[in-house]
Specification:
- By secondary structure, the chain is α+β, with helices and mostly antiparallel strands.
- The protein has one domain.
- It is about 50% helix and about 15% strand.
- It is built from ten helices and seven strands.
- A five-stranded antiparallel sheet has the order 2-5-4-3-6.
- Helix 3 packs across helix 5.
- The longest helix is centred in the N-terminal third of the chain and has 30 residues.
- It starts with a helix and ends with a helix.
């Protein structure tokens, strides 16, 4: 199932994705008539189809976004609270002044935007220090073409771009982790004028629809999230660990 677990972070779904060899496989007395078995089979097929659709749309965005003259800019240009896009993009952070070494990034989709997750250590020895996943910022983007454009770029970098994924950390020294996350992610910008830039982004979306048949990456990712959640629910029940769900979730936030 590829990188599906990386979208939402912290659940049994991701544990299975990375550690399935360490777990016993549940045995069904009558697989053909067991509702959990049937449902897992259905969810598995849907997850596979969603992964294909996600890849097709993200790849189409990557290709079509580079067919027009552009300059590569950090996400901060779009997310700057004092910038030109402040009326379209708002974000809030539970820890806006959190400092540390930013080691990795993940994107979690929401109905109105995304959550930017970061793996952080505050230890000077960042290679060996304790690390944890924290929510850096919850972003809302009012303009749908811009939301899907930025989401596609963020997913491409964090899930498919091996050069980006191989980076060991995204900060030179200890610094503000929220700003570092927005600076580490980069995306095309086509014009200094906001309206002309947005018009080109609309055109890119139209080309993506022609190429991939759809551009609604946000809906694909949200459905993936729902599928992961249902798989998690079944898995916790089958393994008899539902009472320890909060404890397992907290442990995964520190270890994965």
């Amino acid at each position: 199932m590829g990188g599906l677990g990386k979208l939402t972070g912290q659940g049994m779904f991701e544990y299975f994705e990375n550690q399935v060899g360490d777990l016993p496989i549940p045995m069904f007395d009558d697989p053909e008539h067991n509702p959990d078995h049937r449902r897992l089979s259905e969810l598995g097929k849907e997850a596979h189809q969603l992964f294909k659709e996600r890849y097709q749309v993200v790849e189409a965005y990557q290709l079509k976004s580079q067919t027009v003259n552009y300059q590569m800019v950090p996400f901060w240009l779009y997310h700057d609270p004092a910038g030109e896009y402040r009326e379209l993009i708002q974000w809030a952070s539970p820890a806006p002044n959190r400092e540390g070494h930013l080691l990795d990034l993940r994107i979690e989709p929401t109905k109105i935007g995304y959550v930017l997750w970061g793996e952080i250590t505050e230890d000077e020895n960042w290679r060996e220090g304790e690390r944890e996943w924290v929510s850096l910022a919850k972003v809302s983007i009012d303009y749908a073409p811009l939301r899907r454009f930025l989401l596609a770029r963020a997913v491409y970098l964090t899930d498919f771009d091996e050069t980006f994924r191989r980076r060991q950390k995204y900060t030179g020294e200890t610094g503000n982790s929220v700003r570092a996350g927005f600076l580490a992610l980069t995306t095309p910008c086509y014009d200094d004028d906001r309206m002309r830039n947005l018009k080109i982004i609309e055109n890119v979306e139209s080309r993506v629809i022609s190429e991939a048949g759809r551009a609604d990456l946000d809906r694909i990712l949200l459905r993936q999230k729902a599928v992961e959640q249902e798989i998690d629910d079944i898995a916790y029940r089958l393994y008899g660990v539902e009472p320890y769900r909060d404890l397992i979730t907290a442990a995964l936030q520190l270890s994965l």
